[in-house]
Description:
The chain has 411 residues and is mostly helical.
Amino acid sequence: xxxxxxxxxxxxxxxxxxxxxxxxxxxxxxxxxxxxxxxxxxxxxxxxxxxxxxxxxxxxxxxxxxxxxxxxxxxxxxxxxxxxxxxxxxxxxxxxxxxxxxxxxxxxxxxxxxxxxxxxxxxxxxxxxxxxxxxxxxxxxxxxxxxxxxxxxxxxxxxxxxxxxxxxxxxxxxxxxxxxxxxxxxxxxxxxxxxxxxxxxxxxxxxxxxxxxxxxxxxxxxxxxxxxxxxxxxxxxxxxxxxxxxxxxxxxxxxxxxxxxxxxxxxxxxxxxxxxxxxxxxxxxxxxxxxxxxxxxxxxxxxxxxxxxxxxxxxxxxxxxxxxxxxxxxxxxxxxxxxxxxxxxxxxxxxxxxxxxxxxxxxxxxxxxxxxxxxxxxxxxxxxxxxxxxxxxxxxxxxxxxxxxxxxxxx
Length: 411
């Protein structure tokens, strides 16, 4: 049971790297696209991040909460010894969010530079913290490690640089796919070049990192860690081939797999050590705390995962595009237009609308009834059957709200 929260932490780190990392990478490409000629690249990066840039930080919060709940001694040691890079990352996230909001209001070029620099500084600081943990530079105890050299050393700095390059690599692949969706071939070409270049740089740095990490105490060249390294290498090569052939939809998946495999390889190489002299089992909290944590994560996942899945589905389908966004590549014609354009359709039927979907007001009523009934049953009644029925009503409310959010707007 002591290892179950580790699985949660690794899953959260992989999700944060794959999703939020792409957002940080978008900021990197805005920094590397100055001047009027880079305006389309900056606009595309801003558009692609718009609906999801705040939601992705849920995974960072998830990792922190699980770590300090399940492994309090290890978390205290990490947070105290690595207080500097963690503080830098936190400040970077705050400045980045503020600059992004200001940039959306037509702020000065200085806000754009603040956004871009924060997008580079944050993954670098987080990467150095991961490198310090991986190479055993965080001893057990309150600020027991060196506050400077624990994260400013060759292995940690290389990990930070690799994190920045990985972010740029993911962002370039995702943005190329997004540009294709909007029929912006020139932008897709620009991001395709960046994806190929970032992929090659990532591969070279990852290969160098194998030797640097081995000299620093983390051997990734045997066992399960080596398998994960090979998976990452194969997925990275597949991404390059897919990008070269303009298959960006599949390239998204292989790029994410390449980065997630690196996280899994690090965990496999470090197991069972959490910190020097402290194994995962020794660092774990009491059994009752772990059970409560596992139940809490399981219950929260029922709400969190469908919500994020809905958010990304709506975004990828263009439902969250703003009026000033590009038109989709293949916009679906309105029912009347489709009927009028279909060969052999009689004129009398050309303007006939398709059968209407169930009215949105029914879903709205179901959501309202579910919320009121579920709250009332849970708050004012004590029997177990009433609580079970109340939970069912709240689930009905959630389903109705999701259905309303995913419904196309009324004509």
